[in-house]
From TrEMBL:
Free-text function comment from the UniProt entry: Catalyzes the conversion of 1-hydroxy-2-methyl-2-(E)-butenyl 4-diphosphate (HMBPP) into a mixture of isopentenyl diphosphate (IPP) and dimethylallyl diphosphate (DMAPP). Acts in the terminal step of the DOXP/MEP pathway for isoprenoid precursor biosynthesis.
UniProt: isopentenyl diphosphate binding residues: H168, H201, H251, S349, S350, N351, S393
Source organism: Streptomonospora litoralis
Keyword Chaperone (UniProt): no
Protein known as: 4-hydroxy-3-methylbut-2-enyl diphosphate reductase
Heme keyword on record: no
Length: 435
């Protein structure tokens, strides 16, 4: 989430700070000197939010002296108390700072400002290496789904209704919402005859039927690789097999796939689930998988299925998609060398959560962050090498923002480790394809 933007301010001028607000420095100024950038401002702002303060962004005067934070100079800061510092070892210099309203009653904001600056300074001044996994961020299915909504808005105007989150990322959803998309949980919230987009995760035939009954103008943004799994589900069920779907209960993609042949499909997550399976005919069992599972964990479940049902049939190539596989392989190439892994993604993003789990299985502490503001200073204590990646639904700009912010704590060297280059592109559905 972005901070409330503060209007441009002159150093020494009063900022429009309300009680409880804390001004986080984007820049520090000192008489006659060039402005000093504060790339770690988003980190400080995130910390303040967790402390219950409301951050706004602007310019602060640099306190006299360098190094540890100190109260802003007398007479130079009418919104003091302010806490500012330069980060040792940076050239050109970078700094960080925060200040609250000059209100003696606002002790909580003053404490939050001081503690937030102190917390980040405690892990600043250290040279760090960022190991950047590649591929990372948007996959072809996510890019296509977002473009479907953008094209629908451009061609049909607002509102365009979207059933469920178009992709599992809070930033993508907020951005499309700000441009006129309306996200709904179910079709009964969509007015009769309106345009509705189905998300990248796919829907069951029941949802298509309901849309037809309500005369909705459907644009289906289901990823073609999810559609492939639906097709397999219908094919396996139609030949009389019990279809074992490996996936996570309640995930939207799983709900959609289960709906293709609900009477013939059973869901399993683990080898233990396989051991407990009851099927009508052990000679007629097929399996499918959710597209965003961990490759190693899924292999163990398939092995358990094959051990119980030697005649097991499955897809010619794995249903776990290329993007999920590539992001996991790229992360494996950096995880063991990292002291900490940061995965950019939302907590309902299956492939992002799988990346966190994978890093942990490699023995490295890992954290899922929606954006830079979620990073906590204590995670960086002792972390000189930070592994960085992003799930397939996370915008690439969020990764860049993390690198920028880390550079506000000290010198950062970035090494990108690219294990393969993705060239896959999916064409748009014909109903929204620009002519
Ligand atoms: S993660 Fe895979 S299945 Fe999901 S949208 Fe991306 S390419 Fe498609």
């Amino acid at each position: 989430m972005s901070d409330t933007a503060a209007p441009p301010t002159d150093p020494g001028a009063a900022h429009p700070l309300r009680p409880g607000s804390v001004l986080v420095a984007d820049r520090l100024v000192r008489a006659h000197d060039p402005e000093i950038a504060c790339p770690a401002a988003a980190l400080v702002a995130g910390d303040l939010r967790r402390r219950g303060a409301q951050p706004v962004r602007g310019t602060l005067p640099l306190a006299a002296g360098e190094g540890p934070p100190s109260a802003a100079p007398e007479g130079g800061d009418r919104h003091a108390p302010g806490f500012t510092a330069l980060i040792p070892g940076t050239d050109p210099p970078v700094g960080l700072g925060a200040a609250c309203a000059a209100d003696p009653a606002d002790a909580a904001a003053e404490r939050a400002a001081r503690e937030a600056v102190d917390a980040w300074l405690a892990v600043a001044g250290t040279a760090r290496t960022v190991l950047l996994a590649a591929p990372r961020s948007f996959c072809a299915g996510v890019e296509r789904a977002i473009e479907v909504v953008e094209q629908a808005l451009a061609q049909r105007g607002s509102p365009v209704y979207v059933r469920k989150q178009i992709v599992h990322n809070t930033h993508v959803v907020a951005d499309l919402e700000s441009r006129g998309a309306v996200f709904v949980d179910e079709l009964d919230a969509v007015p009769e005859g309106a345009t509705v987009v189905f998300s990248a995760h796919g829907v069951s035939p029941r949802v298509h039927q309901e849309a037809a009954e309500r005369s909705l103008r459907v644009i289906d943004a289901t990823c073609p690789l999810v559609t492939k799994v639906h097709t397999e589900a219908r094919r396996y069920a139609s030949r009389g097999d019990t279809v074992v779907l490996i996936g996570h209960a309640g995930h939207e993609e799983v709900e959609g796939t289960l709906g293709e042949a609900p009477e013939r499909t059973v869901l399993v997550e683990t080898p233990e689930d396989v051991a407990a399976l009851e099927v009508a005919d052990p000679e007629r069992v097929s399996y499918l998988t959710q597209t965003t599972l961990a490759t190693d964990e899924t292999a163990a479940v398939v092995d358990a299925l094959r051990a119980r049902f030697p005649a097991l049939r499955g897809p010619a190539s794995d249903d776990i998609c290329y993007a999920t596989t590539n992001r996991q392989d790229a992360l494996k190439s950096i995880a063991e060398e990292s002291d900490l892994v940061l995965v950019v993604g939302s907590d309902n993003s299956s492939n992002s959560v799988r990346l966190v789990e994978l890093a942990e299985r490699c023995g490295t502490p890992a954290r899922l962050i929606d954006d830079t503001g979620d990073i906590r200073p204590e995670w960086l204590a002792g972390a000189r090498t930070v592994g960085l990646t992003a799930g397939a639904s996370a915008p690439p700009g969020l990764v860049e923002a993390v690198i920028t912010a880390l550079g506000g704590l000290g010198p950062v060297t970035v090494h990108e480790r690219e294990i393969t280059r993705e060239t896959i592109h999916f064409t748009l559905p014909s109903v929204v394809r620009p002519s």
